[in-house]
Design goal:
The protein is built from no helices and ten strands. By secondary structure, the chain is an all-beta fold.
Length: 166
């Protein structure tokens, strides 16, 4: 077992101490680990050309935490952070298991993506006791930007003008 101690010293340097037994039971000693974090693709081109327009971040959570206990952010070269939303999946936010985050650079909402460059994807989890763990991966953004034109494919009609003026 453990022993607790409270000790005090007054202005005359006299010290008094009391102690007592301490029993810990049903303690949650497991850390909320983040395992097997992956970012795919590692080079991401958010420009709606149909190639590598989205990045998927997967991370495995080893224990259940609060619904808002797991966060994934994109950290820029300047230290600024952009949140990345968790994709709807088989498990609920905060549950033990594989969590998937989907990132489009803001393009789907019509926003300009972050500037091209090297970024860090940081996953952070905090359990109900306040224990925190962090996992990081690298992500490169290239050729990012909103499309400059829309292309419409429609039916092309040909007209022939025939006359009897021969």
């Amino acid at each position: 077992g453990y022993t607790w101690v409270i000790e005090a010293t007054d202005a005359r340097s006299e010290t008094n101490k009391i102690t007592g037994p301490l029993k810990i039971s049903a303690a949650d000693t497991a850390l909320p680990e983040l395992r097997n974090q992956t970012v795919s693709p590692n080079v991401f081109t958010p420009n709606q050309d149909g190639l590598n327009d989205r990045a998927t971040i997967n991370v495995y959570l080893t224990k259940e935490v609060a619904e808002d206990g797991l966060h994934v952010v994109l950290v820029g070269p300047d230290g600024g952070e952009l949140p990345i939303a968790e994709a709807a999946g088989r498990i609920k936010p905060g549950q033990r298991g594989l969590h998937m985050f989907d990132y489009d650079g803001g393009i789907d909402l019509g926003a300009n993506p972050p500037p091209d460059g090297e970024y860090t994807v940081r996953a952070e989890v905090e359990d109900k006791l306040g224990q925190k763990m962090v996992a990081t991966s690298l992500l490169t953004i290239q050729n990012g930007g909103l499309p400059r034109a829309d292309i419409y494919l429609g039916q092309v009609e040909f007209f022939t003008n025939l006359s009897n003026d021969l």
